[in-house]
Specification:
The chain is of the alpha+beta class. The chain is built from 8 helices and 11 strands. The strands form 4 sheets. A 4-stranded antiparallel sheet has the order 4-5-1-6, sandwiched between helices. A 3-stranded antiparallel sheet has the order 7-8-9, with helices on one face. Strand 10 and strand 11 form a beta hairpin. It is globular and about 60 Å long. The termini are far apart. The mean pLDDT is about 90. This is Reverse transcriptase domain-containing protein. InterPro entries: DNA/RNA_pol_sf (IPR043502), Rev_trsase/Diguanyl_cyclase (IPR043128), RNA-dir_DNA_polymerase (IPR053134), RT_dom (IPR000477). It comes from Acer saccharum (Sugar maple).
């Protein structure tokens, strides 16, 4: 069953509580020896509605009128409400041995020996707040796994293989929407593409022209080169404390560029 909360959402003031930045969470996860991935079971439904607001979720069926006693999916501020809750629940762990993005939770340990202790701390909090997990979406004590669309492990961050497969199987764009879909896909892989602005420039030129699509030879060559490049995308690793890093600067009439690397 699906309830349309469009009118209710229009009447609700926006809750501006921010969601964490995905790139920061992923960066903070890489480099740990053992990871445990957890997912809340219908997480939104585990939050009780304010008694006074229950009737605002009223919906009609052939058997009568009903309203939600728990927070349903589809409410404007459900995501912000849930993130605020988990931030408070795991305040002592976030950034230390845990990262949380809405109902995606991850416990991380720098050593395998410490992982049981870190998990116990997480489970103690879950029991305290009576939050239930979805066992079919939980994986415990593994060296690597997928988190927020990226493959994370002790060595660093890798591009999601499914995204690479989708790109490799993509036919050459024929419409403006096809190009926009391509640039959207590449935007999610941007951090793995060196000089991404230059490599993707032909696509943005094609979009800027507006009227119809002129998929030039330059566009096709750039498209095929990107497919080949991402097939061997680099592993992004965190800097090691105490290790010497070198910052290279390159300035041209068009733009400045920087690169940080090991010796």
């Amino acid at each position: 069953m699906c309830v349309d909360f469009t009118d209710l959402n229009k009447a609700c003031p926006k809750d501006s509580f921010p969601l964490p930045r995905i790139d920061q969470l992923v960066d903070a996860t890489a480099g740990h020896e053992l990871l445990s991935f957890m997912d809340a079971y219908s997480g939104y439904n585990q939050i009780r509605m304010n008694k006074a607001d229950e009737e605002k979720t009223l919906f009609t069926t052939d058997q009568g009128l009903y309203c939600y006693k728990v927070m349903p999916f589809g409410l404007k501020n459900a995501g912000a409400t849930y993130q605020r809750l988990v931030n408070r629940m795991f305040a002592r762990q976030i950034g230390k041995n845990m990262e949380v993005y809405v109902d995606d939770m991850l416990t991380k340990s720098t050593t395998a020996e410490k992982h049981t202790e870190d998990l116990k701390e997480t489970f103690d909090v879950l029991r305290k707040y009576q939050m239930k997990l979805n066992p079919s979406k939980c994986v415990f004590g593994v060296p690597s796994g997928r988190f927020l669309g990226f493959q994370v492990h002790q060595r660093g961050i890798e591009v999601n293989p499914e995204k690479i497969k989708a790109l490799e199987g993509m036919a050459s764009p024929r419409t403006l929407k096809d190009v926009q879909r391509l640039t959207g896909c590449l935007a999610s892989l941007n951090r793995f593409i060196a000089k991404s602005t230059d490599k993707c420039a032909p696509f943005f030129k094609a979009i800027k022209k507006g009227k119809g699509l002129e998929w030039s030879t330059e566009c096709e060559e750039a498209f095929q080169k990107l497919k080949e490049y991402l097939g061997r995308a680099p592993i992004l690793s965190k800097p090691v404390v105490g290790e010497t890093l070198y910052l290279y600067l390159s300035v041209t009439e068009r733009k400045p560029d920087t690169r940080r690397q090991k010796k």
